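The following block was generated as part of the benchmark described in Methods. Ligand: nicotinamide-adenine-dinucleotide.
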Amino acid sequence: MTATTARESRTQQSETAAEVVGRLRATFNTGVTRPLDWRVGQLQRLRALLVENEQELTEALWADLRKNAAEAKAQEIDFTVADIDETLANLENWLQPRPVEVPAHFGGPHTTAYTTYDPLGVVLVIAPWNFPLHLLIDPIIGALAAGNTVVAKPSEISVHTSAVASRLLRQYFDADVLTVVEGGAEETTALLAQRFDHIFYTGNGTVGRIVMAAAAQNLTPVTLELGGKSPVFVAPDADVDETAKRLVGAKFGNAGQQCIAPDYVLADPATAAALVPALRAAVEAQFGSTPQTAAGFGRIINERHFDRLARLLDSGKVAVGGQHDRDDLFIAPTVLTDVDPASPVMQEEIFGPILAVVEVADLEAAIAFINDRDKPLALYAFTTSEDTKSRLVNETSSGGVAWGQPVMQLLMPGLPFGGVGESGMGRYHGRYSLETFSHLKGVADVPLG
Ligand code: NAD
């Protein structure tokens, strides 16, 4: 039996949460996680895990969410590998101490000051079910790159993907570096009672509050990657056919179960009237006239979410789609019009294949509508007007913004990803992940002589 398999059997949920964290803290305290080589080695393991097990992972994603193989590979594997590669290519540079200019009156010419990234210690990563692989692995990239040990808690709802990912993480990683704890609220509650050095949570705001309250007991910093209702403003100057095509592509992937999916459209009555038939045509072009048989259209994760979404179909006039089949967890790509802002579909994050169209008088009214509600994770607009873009970006608050192509703010290398207000706190991806999982330490060095 190899050392790793021996440790594996020791960590098949037989340890208490306190033992797991104690063991990972002991590893961290040896200092082994600090050198660049160690970090690079861990990232290479993570990369190998994804690349070598692509087929098994994409099959699990199909079983959970009916994600077709191409979508699963692109969004959950390749996108994650790209983040690893960016980190591997830049980590040495990112970790260099950054000199700070020393004012003349602070000492002689030999006085220096710099900043350096310090690892935090033991990090807890709690993942959701909607991108069950990517959202589990992506924070781990930053945690390991920053020189931490990790407890990974996959979502119990995406049963197939979480089982495969857990087994592979145990197989590829020394359990004294990364330990997987499977389970739901009970197991997570036991973990949250421990002292971590950072908690990275992706999911809904109700549990986000539980996580933050638990973290407060130990003054543990948190990153909360939450959701919300992401609006789309379609301006009168937008090409409605192109807008509809891009909206449909961004909205109905993963059957709308994306934190940054366009949630509702704001448009003036004339623009809305032109957009709706264009949306109908775009849905048909992308998924055919019977989306239930389209290979590229996913399913709702479970009955509870299906029932929640089915109830929302009454919140407006069904202008596109509306068909649903509980036995198949299928809800067609749907567009609701005549949606009253007070209706149920406008009271919660939709998180499914329903797009609500809400009519507003103009840009001014759209900005007021957005600012009257919780700060969303994303704000989108389709317009050719720089003035409209400038007003939207400067007069509203959201986690991120994309003009012309929803989801681009997430995919674009170099951009931070995270929410604000009700949509979360903190940010990650690339260099921002290193910052999230490190302490930026200031050092002043005054010569003795
Ligand atoms: P979920 O039900 O899988 O829950 C997320 C995690 O919280 C799971 O690991 C689960 O075990 C844990 N959990 C559940 N109840 C708990 C409790 N009482 N105490 C402690 N832990 C508990 O996923 P979800 O919350 O349904 O995910 C969907 C939400 O996540 C949506 O709001 C979506 O917008 C948001 N989301 C955000 C992002 C982002 O990057 N900002 C990405 C994906 C999803």
